[in-house]
Design brief:
By secondary structure, this protein is an alpha+beta fold. The protein is built from 8 helices and 9 strands. The chain has 2 domains: 153 residues, no CATH class; 42 residues. A hairpin with a 2-residue loop joins strand 2 and strand 3.
């Protein structure tokens, strides 16, 4: 599959079109994706503007690309989780959020090959050292990654709601270099595509799948054996 890039599109409107063509159940997942995208589109950190978005027949996932590349994080495990499913069931895209105007986010959408991305991830993942937690009372607390899940309850009882957190890799420089190389290679290899044609291809694929399921569900009509003739006397 030749990777495509759809430049300067309305990100939320475009992704919703993909969901409507490809996702059959748990479409409400996309409501959470919208909130994530709208929040990160306002960030001054360029890393927050690069996301990985997965669209499946049973729901969606929106993940920061930076976190996907950190070994054993939730985001990292999500991308591996569906590797055993049939090909073409998982649509994968890279998003680059460029600007936000009210509820509209403009940016680029890249098509990705799910199987290749999983393989690449196994080679490029970086270890996590610490996690910085940001609480409702304004406090910031950094804890070792190993004790992250065990200290959440104690810290929230002391500082209130956990607003957000950020993983800290063992080497920020190494992770930054990997991300820059991925983005450079992605830009160089992708052909500029027509998003409407992409939606049409998803629609045709959906129709073919429906026809295939319909045929498989129709039981063949059993032919009755011919009546036996009475022997003539």
């Amino acid at each position: 599959m030749i990777p495509q890039v759809y430049r300067d599109v309305d990100i939320l409107k475009s992704l919703e079109q993909i969901v409507n063509r490809h996702t059959k159940e748990f479409k409400e997942d996309f409501e959470l994706d919208k909130k994530i995208i709208l929040k990160l589109a306002q960030s001054s950190d360029e890393n927050d503007r690069h996301l990985i978005w997965m669209c499946r027949p049973l729901g969606t996932h929106c993940l920061r690309e930076r976190d996907v590349l950190l070994a054993n994080t939730y985001e990292n495990r999500v991308l591996y989780a569906y590797n055993s499913e049939k090909p073409n069931k998982n649509l994968l895209y890279a998003l680059h959020l460029k600007s936000k105007d009210g509820e509209k986010v403009t940016g680029d959408i890249y098509t990705l090959d799910y199987a290749k991305e999983v393989e690449r991830l196994s080679l490029l993942s970086c270890p996590v050292a610490e996690v910085t937690l940001y609480f409702a009372d304004g406090r910031e607390v950094t804890v070792p990654y190993e004790s992250f899940n065990h200290t959440i309850h104690e810290l929230t009882s002391e500082h209130g709601t956990l607003d957000s957190f950020r993983y800290r890799p063992e080497s920020e420089a190494e992770l930054g270099l990997i991300l820059r190389r991925l983005h450079f290679k992605r830009n160089r290899q992708a052909n500029v595509g027509d998003f409407e044609q992409h939606i049409e291809s998803l629609q045709k694929s959906s129709v073919r799948n429906k026809l295939h399921r319909a045929k498989s569900e129709v039981k063949p009509v059993e032919k009755k054996p011919p009546k036996k003739k009475e022997p003539s006397l």
